[in-house]
Amino acid sequence: LNDRHPALRCSFFDSITGVCAFVGRASLQAFVLPCILQALTDVEECVVSAALQSLCRLAEVSLHSRASVLEIAAKIAPLLCHPNSWVRHGAVGFFAAISRQFGDTHVFCFVRPLLRPFLARPLLSLDAEHLTAALRPPASRRVFDRALAAAAEQTGNGGNGGNGSNGGNGGLQG
User: Largest alpha-carbon pair distance within the chain?
Assistant: First the structure.
């Protein structure tokens, strides 16, 4: 994951789900999940997208605990307004995948509050079609890059410091 080639980092996320199914939930939580969550801030958007797809696959096979799912959901929710369509699609896919693990009451009480800042209208269901239709329009690339620069300044990095966008589209069309 420290390799400078984004294709290698993407390959890791493409294959990690099978490994996690073998090693189990405890190893996933302790070792793999922190790596996947760190990749959500990778400078290459293709890596962010691959990490999101990995989280979706892990959610589909219920390898996350409910508490872990809500923690992950809180980190993924802002990506619903990302300017890159692949990143947005991955974020929507994660929420659609976790909807199968939660009943309507849990969704209403725990998941919807995480989504509320990113919704333009009330959310009827967490399935991909309803969630996509309820989302606010994505941020423009220019606004997104300025927000990243401002956040980097506030944290004292003075640059993107490996957190955010490289000013381009990371090899993805959005």
Answer: 44
Query: Which residue in 80, 61, 70, 148 sits closest to 119, CA to CA?
Result: 80
Retrieve residue 118's tokens. Answer: 């990113």
Distance CA 77, CA 115 (A): 6
Answering whether pTM is above 0.90, one says: no
Instruction: Report the length, in residues, of the chain.
Output: 174
Helices (H) and strands (E) in the chain, counts: 10, 0
Position 127: which residue type?
D
Cα dihedral sign, 101-103-108-109: negative
DSSP 144-172: HHHHHHHHHHHHT-SS-TTSS--SS-TT-
Q: Which helix (H) or strand (E) holds 65?
A: none
Residues of the chain with pLDDT under 70: 1-2, 157-174
8-state DSSP, 119: B
**Token pair recorded at residue 148:** 């990243």
